[in-house]
Structure formats: structure tokens, C-alpha cells
Amino acid sequence: MKVSNFKQLAAGVVSSLMLVATIASARVEPINLAVDLATPVLEADKAQKAFVKISLTGIKPDQATVKRTPTNIAIVLDKSGSMQGNKIRHARDAAIMAINQLGAEDIVSVVTYDTTVSVVVPATKVVNKTNIANMIRQIQANGSTALFAGVSKGADEIRKYISANRVNRVILLSDGLANVGPQLPSELGQLGASLAKEGISVTTIGLGLGYNEDLMTQLAGYSDGNHAFVENAQDLAKIFHSEFGDVLSVIAQGVNIEIHCASGVRPIRILGREGEVIGNKVRTRLNQLYSTQEKYLILEVEVPPGKAGQQKDIASVQVNYNNMFNKKQEALSGLAVASFSQSKQQVVEAINKDVYEDSVEQVANEETKKAIRLRDEGNIPAAKAALKQSADYLAEESKIVKSEKLKKQQEEVLGDAAALESEADWNKNRKLLKEKQYKRAKQQSY
Amino acid sequence: MRKLTAQQKIKYVLVLLITLPICILSWLSYELQKNEQIVQAHQAQSLIDSQLKRVERELQAYFEQLEIQLRSDQQTLANLQQSKLTDQVRDYLQASPLVQNIFILANSGSLLFPSNNQISIKEENFISQTKPIWSNPELFQHLASQDEAQQLQVSTDSTARLEVEAFASPASQKKAVASFAPNILSSGWISWYSGNHHRLLFWVKDSLNRVIGFDLNRMRMLSDLINRLPDASQYSKSLHQSAIRLLNDKSNILYQWGSYVIKENEQALGTRYLSPPLANWKVAYFGDNSKMVNLNWVGTLTGLLAFMIALIGLGVYFYREQQREMIQAQQRVSFVNQVSHELKTPLTNIRMYAELLTDQLYEEDQQQSKYLKVITGESLRLSRLIENVLNFSRAQRNAIKINKLPGIIDECVKNTIVAFEATLHNKGMQFEVSYSAEQPVYFDKGVIEQILNNLFSNAEKYAHDGKNISVTTQLLNEHCKITVQDYGPGIPTYARNRIFEPFYRVSSKLTDGISGTGIGLNIARQLARLHGGDLTLSGMEVGTCLVLSINVSSE
Questions:
Q1: Which residue has the higher pLDDT, B520 or B153?
Q2: What's the whole-model pTM score?
Q3: Which among A117, A268, A283 is the top mutation candidate for probing chain B, defined by the most B β-carbons within 10 Å of its own β-carbon?
Q4: B222 Cβ under 8 Å from any chain A Cβ
Q5: For residues B522 and B509, what is the distance between their CA atoms, to the nearest angstrom?
Q6: Residue B18: which residues within 8 A CB-CB, separation 6 or more?
Q7: Which residues of chain A have pLDDT under 50?
Q8: Is it the case that residue B397 has pLDDT exceeding 90?
Q9: Rounded Cα distance, B452 and B446, in Å
């Protein structure tokens, strides 16, 4: 008896210890998941569209106790003939400056490309910074632009030390059109999508007015990297600084989001991001989440008519991610619930302002994408009309929720509409528009 | 044709001596170089071939690994339960960087995945694009037994036509895979086109006759292939001054490496088509192969040039030496000429006065008479010598004129003999003369005397052992023939052709110690020829027999 009593006691102690441990690990949970409807109260007896916001917010870790995630970065520099002079000089300086931000736990490689590709600094721990800087200083510009091969080799350097516990990222700088190897935006997008599956994201920095912004945004978009347009080479250092800041603040990676729409609820589209819709299921993925930064996606759904007073599950969300602090796979879940009401006023009063704003913002952002496409087709009036319509939509919606943010966006869109006009500045404006649209869709931090 | 002077001849000979070896040498080195070039080109070509083959092997190895990977993936997928299949395949696709679509066919030929209910847009597109492939079960059977590439035109319904090429996997890997995946029946590649793009699909058929088709992300595949190939810096270490390009079915450049800068529209030095499944792709080698050969040419040319300069230098040196000697010889000749001219007058005076003295001597002054005879004889000899020298230089200038006058040859011969009799007598020699040219004819008395003087003087000098000198004269129509025969040691055979050359003297014991200029016979022959005849050496058994023939007509 005594023995068995003792056993029970021991088991109790162990289990209580385990409980403490789980509580402790729960405490370092770095991500907050919120699943909300823009309009939690829906009009009764009517099929209607609704927006679900799935939001992931990184929580600022305690700097004293938590070590930041080590990085694995490949800097891929365009050194084609057009980079000669100031551009290559600033690019070299920016790269060296960025590497100086890293520490001995980080891994860096430098790849350059022109007609051919050279691995200037093979993937190495950032121990001897002077040595790395010296190798970078020897880069000279010449030749064509084998962008695809450059990214490929950069990714291959990453693979040497690839790990779910590192931030694996290619930072691509280009100032020209890819002219050796694949050069279609969709082809680079395909490569980006493939790299994303391995946990490698590609940040693309377009320098000057000669690069293909569609290609650069697709490559970044499919791999969940950042995208930036830098008109002057002297701003490169700033961008590299921001990018490295982003990279160094990664707290979770390999974020898989699965949304199950309740029966009868039909997913229409994901705004801003790529995702796969299969029946009532939606799948998407973020490569990484950063501390103190919100990343979200808006799902537009069609809700079947409901009776007044009824409560209905709209969508349940499952999130899996790799916690960079405890190196564990963790899961979160959330549920969006709507209720139905006959009173329109009740519907309006119940509006979740933040979610509503974000949903409108993303819808309008999609319109910008459409406007660019129309402008590309040479149909300036239609493009302007699309933006005008988008501005009207923003104005109307901003009134409903009394949103300053949306009003600002409306003014911005009107400015964008004016920017469509000028033939001479279109090349630059298009890059600016693309960049803006991209940043808004992906909630890029800089 | 203008006759060439000795100087010009020497010049031409020297030029020939220089140019001929150079020509031969350059021709030889050209031939050698050409052969070398062929050998080098051959070596370069085989080097290029081996380089390209290595690239092909590297790319081939990728597909071999890929096949093994995909077969093992097939194992995992094939073992899934029917109920979980759809979700699991989608999970697989979401995690696989290389495979972007999959279809699974049941043995009945119906699609197990993607199934008809709840299908994504992407899946729907894929299924409609590849309908000609998955709805054609022959594609997965036909090739199972044979390892040959097949091109099939698969037509579905009547509208869509799809170009499809199918390849069986190499037999070697089948064996390797068989051990680790025993329930795989066959596998292979299908290369097809969607839109304008070449795409690859790998299929595996298991023992239950299920077929899984893996649709590769073509950009990822290319990226992987590129990563298997060297980058520019690596390559430059192994082979510099060259570059290799990977080209797709439309000859677009997919990737390039190597330090060589390829010019636009430059022709590749070697091209190799890849083996299936990339049968339409190729690798092309570029480089500057002329550089190495050029360098060799430079070496050869410098060698040749150095040789040429050396030869020319030598030629110039010899020419100048010869020139200098010629000038010296000419100076000597002209000096001798001058001296001879100056000697002529005092000599004539000495002879004249000696003869006068002889006439005035009394019978009893034997001793003095003897002395005077010697003086006369020696002055005659000196006159002949001087005449010879002057004639020689005149002959050189072609300044001798034949002045024919009527006269009798025999008398002229007699006069000459008289002048020699005293000296010959002293040496114990004597003439045997047979005259038969008594008719008056036209000839130059001075010239004939000069010739005979030379001939007699030779006989006196070299043939005193023979005692006798036979002289015969003969008239034959317009020619007169005078034969002078001595019975001395004769002329050795090797010298016979040369005794008429100026300054040639038969070097033997006989001539040693005997003074002479070596121009006598030459002068004699020249004079004879000027006189429309010749002086020849006649074949004989003893001594020397010289035959002089001259034209004695009035012209």
C-alpha cells in the first residue's frame, strides 16, 4: 500500500510539474490570432457578402531573455553593365553595411550576376566581417542580366544551412530587365512559389527605372518576401537597413493558415495574398511573422440567408507555425461567428471598425491592381474610371465607419488616378504604384 | 639576252641562296603548323566534347536522383487510404517545391485524384490541360517494355491537339529502384507543351496498375539544374577562356557560365543535344580556339625571321667581301697595266740598243757577244710578258682589234721560232718544224706571233725534258692550222678543262718554282677566237699538243 501511495504521489508531482511546464511554454506564445468579421451582425433573410479578417500579430519578445532568430541570408546583386558607377558602389556599400548588422550566429552569402553568375561569398558564418567586406568591394559591373540564375544560386547558398530555426532569405537587387534565362513575371513567380515551400523568401529591391516591377513583385509575392522600389542608389543603404531590421525580428515561420467555411458559406476570394480555394476550404501560407507587426488576410465570403436572432459560425481558422523561440511547432485556432438582425441600424452599430477599414482598404487595393492592368492595355480612361470608382467606394465606406484612414486612402487613390495620365512619368509611377499596392497587400513594415 | 656580269651573277646566286632556304623552311613550318593545327583542333574538339558530355551527365544525374525521389514519393502516396487521399496529396503538393500538380489514375482509367467533387481552380486547369495524357492509357503501357523514346501525337476529341513525347526511364535505374520499391511496374517521362512552354511529367505505375503522374514546376526544375552547374568563378579555374551555354528547345539561353565573353551571333565551337527527358535542349561550348594557334604562329614567324635576317646578314657579308676583293683585283690589274705600259718603252730601247751593240761587235769579242745575247733574249721575254698582260686587260675590256693584212703564215712562224732558238738552245731543246703554209693569206701577224709566243714559252718552261718541240703548219681552204707539240710531262686529266681559265695554273711539283702568271693560254685562246678560230688541246699520248686554228680569209 505504502509503495502504491508513494507512486501516486510521485505521479501527482510529475503531472503537476508538467502542467507548470505547459503553462510556462504557453507564456512564450509569440503570436496572437484574431478572427473577426467586419460586420458581426448581418442582415437577416438575405444572402450577402461578408469579410473575415484573419489577423496574426507578433508579440514583442522580452529582449533581455529572448535571443533573436539567427538568419541565413543570400545577398544577390545585379552587376550588369547598367549598374556601373554609382549604383554598384552604393550597392556594395549597402551590402557591407547590412552585413555589419549581423552577428557570428548568422549566415550570409553574396552572389552576383551579369551574363553569368558568381558566388562571391559562399554561405559562411558572419565571423570575419572584414574579409567578407573585402570580397564585396571587388565586385565590378559588366554584362547582361541573368536574374533567374542569380536567384537560383542565391537560394542554393541558403540551402547549405537551411533550417526552420533560421530566417532563410534571398535579398535580390536588380536595376534591369532579366535578359538571360527565364524572364516572364509568371516564371519568376513560379520559382518564388517553389522557394516558399522550402521556407525561403525572396525580397526584391528594384533600383532605378529600368527593372520589371511585375517580375519583382511576383517573385517577392509568391515567396512572401518584401518588395521595394529605390529610385536613387544612395537610398539603398536605408532599404537594406529596413530589410535587415525586418529579417532580424522574425518570431515565427512556416505559418500555414487553413480556413474552413461553415456549410453554406462560400469563400469568394482572398484579398492581397495568394491562396488555394478548394470547395469551402481555403489554404494559404505566410513564410514568416515579425515581432510587433500585424499580418492579416481578408477573406471575402458569401453568407446564405439567416433568420433574425440566429447565431451562425462563418469560418473556423487553424494556424500552424514554427515558434522561433522554443523551436516548436505550435497551433492556434479561431472562429468567426455572425448573428443576424432585421434592423439595419443594429448592423451598422455592430460594425468592427478596424476590421471594416482593413477590408475596405484591401478591396480598394485590388482595384489599383486592376487599374494598372487597364493602364498597361493603354486604356487610360478605363483605368482612371476604376480608380475613381475605388475612390468613391472608399469615400462612401469611410463615411459609414467615420474613418480618417480610409479618407486618406481615398485621397491617395485620387492622386494615383492623376498619376496614370502622364506618359513620361508612367514608368516611374507604375513602379511606385506597384510598390504601394504590394506593401498594402502584404502589410510590409517599411 | 643581255649577258650577266660576274657581279650580277654573284648577286643573283646570293639572293637565291638566301631565299631558297627561307622558302623551304617557311613551307615546312607552314606544313608542320598546319598539321599541328589539325591535331590541336582535334584535341580541342575532343576536349569540348568531353566537357559537354560532362555537363550532360551532370544534368542526367539530376533526373536519376529525381526519379528515385519521385518513386519513393509514389510509394508514400500509393499506401494512403482512399478516404485520406485527397487531403494528403494536397499536403504533399503544398510541401513539395518541385511537384506542382499530381494526377492519380485507378486501374480502370478513372481519376482518383483530383476527384470531381471539391476541386480547386488550379487542379481543374491541370486536369483539363493534361486530359490527352491521362485519358490515354497506352502512354503508360507502351513504353514499359522498351527503353526507346517515342513521339506521339495525341489527339483528343477533334479539337485539342497536344504534342507529347514519352520516354521510359533508363533500365539501369529500374533495377536500382526495383530492390527498394518492389511494387513499381514501370515509370517514365512525358514531355509535353502547355501554351508555349515545354513541361515534364513523370509517371509511375505500380503493380495494381495505378498510375501517378507528377507534374514538375518547370522553373524549379530549371533552377535545380542551374544549381548543379558551375558558376562563373568555379568554371574559370578549370578551363579559362571559354563558356558554356544551356539552351532550351527554342534556343533561348537558360544559363551560361565560364569567363569567356560571347559575342552576339557567335558560332558555338561544339553543341550537344541532351538526352531525354530534355531531348530538345542542348549545351553549346564557346571559346576562342584561334588564340592558342596564333601564338604558335608568332613563335614560328619569329624563328623564321631570325633565320632570314641571319642568312641575309651572311649574304651581305659575303657579297661585300667579294666586292672588296674584286675592287682590289681590279686595282691590281690596273696597276700592272700602268706599270707594263711604262715598262714597254724602256724595254724596247734596251733591246734596240743591245741589238745595235751586237752588230757593232767584233768577231773576237765572244764574251761580250754572249752577254748581249742574254740581254736581248731576256728583254724579248720581258716584252712578251708585258704584251700578255696588256692583251689580257685589253681582252677584259674587249678592246683588241684584229687587223688582217696579207702575208705568209710560215714566215711569221719562222720569225717567232728564231726569237726562241737561242733560249731553247741554252736549255738543250730544239724545234722540229714542218711548213706547209706558204701561200699568202690574210691574218694579223702580231696576234699570231703573240699566240705562238705563248705556246712556245709554255713549252720552254714546262717541257724542257722533252727536248723537241714539233711545229706543223697547214692550210685548209680558209683556215690555217698550227700544231705545237712538246714531249714534256703533259697535262693531268683533271686540269685539261681548266688550263684555259685565267690565272689557273696546274699545281704540281713541276710548276713549283717556275714563274708564270697563268694568263698565257687564256690570252692565246681569246686571241684565236677573235681571229675566227680556236685554240684547243688535242688528245695525245705524250706531252702536250695544242692546236691553233685561225681564219685566214680576207674578211
A1: B520
A2: 0.71
A3: A117
A4: yes
A5: 22
A6: B308, B311, B312, B315
A7: 1-4, 11-26
A8: no
A9: 10
Residue B91 near chain A (CB below 8 Å): no
pLDDT beyond 50 at B149: no
What's the mean pLDDT in B306-324? 90
**Considering only CA atoms, which of A188, A178, A181 is closest in space to residue A82?**
A178
Q: Supply the angle between the helices B218-228 and B6-78 in degrees, to the nearest 10.
A: 130
β-bridge partners, A117:
A113
Nearest chain A residue to B219 by CA: give it. Answer: A191
On the 0-12 / 13-18 / 19+ scale of CB atoms within 10 A, A337 is: middle
Decide if A170 touches B, using CB distance below 8 A: no
Which tens digit of pLDDT belongs to each residue from B271-303?
A: 999 988 888 899 999 987 665 555 567 777 888
- In 3D, which of A147, A99, A148 has the Cα closest to residue A121? A99
* Shortest Cα–Cα distance, A5 to chain B (Å): 45
Q: Which residue has the higher pLDDT, A367 or B179?
A: A367
What's the pLDDT score for residue A63?
66
Structure letter (DSSP) for residue A69: P
Which phi-psi region, left, alpha or beta, contains residue B120 (left: φ > 0; alpha: ψ -120 to 50)? beta
Instruction: Choose between B117 and A271: higher pLDDT.
Output: A271
Quick check: bond before B21 cis, omega within 30?
no
In this structure, what DSSP letter does residue A304 have?
-
Whether this model's ipTM surpasses 0.90 comes out as no
- Give the Cβ contact number of residue A325 at 10 Å: 18
Q: Does B258 touch chain A (CB under 8 A)?
A: yes
Q: Which of A191, A197, A280 sits opposite B223 (nearest CB)?
A: A191
- How many C-alpha atoms does B159 have within 13 Å on its Cβ side? 3
B40-97 per-position pLDDT tens digit: 888 888 888 998 999 999 999 999 999 889 988 888 888 887 778 888 888 899 889 9
Which residues make Cβ contacts (< 8 Å) with residue A197, sequence separation at least 6? B94, B95, B96, B97
Element holding A278 (H helix, E strand):
strand A276-278
Q: Do B255 and A180 touch (CB under 8 A)?
A: yes
Contact B404, B440 (CB under 8 A): no
C-beta atoms surrounding B474 within 10 Å? 16
Cell numbers representing residue B148 in the block: 526507346
- Percentages of chain A per state (helix, strand, coil), in multiples of 5: 45, 30, 25
Residues A283, A258 contacting (CB under 8 angstroms)? yes
- CB within 8 Å: B94 and A278: no
Chain B environment of A282 (Cβ under 8 Å): none
Select from A119, A194, A276 the Cβ nearest to the Cβ of B231.
Answer: A119
Residues of chain B by 3-state class (helix, strand, coil), percent to 5: 50, 20, 30
Pick the residue of A194, A202, A258 with the most B CBs within 10 A to test the interface with B by mutation.
A194
Taking CA atoms, B210 is separated from A59, B46, B113, B175, B219, in Å, by 49, 46, 11, 20, 28
Question: Hey, is A295 helix, strand or coil?
Answer: strand
Pairing of strands B545-551, B534-537: antiparallel
Dist. CA A384–CA A417, nearest whole Å:
5
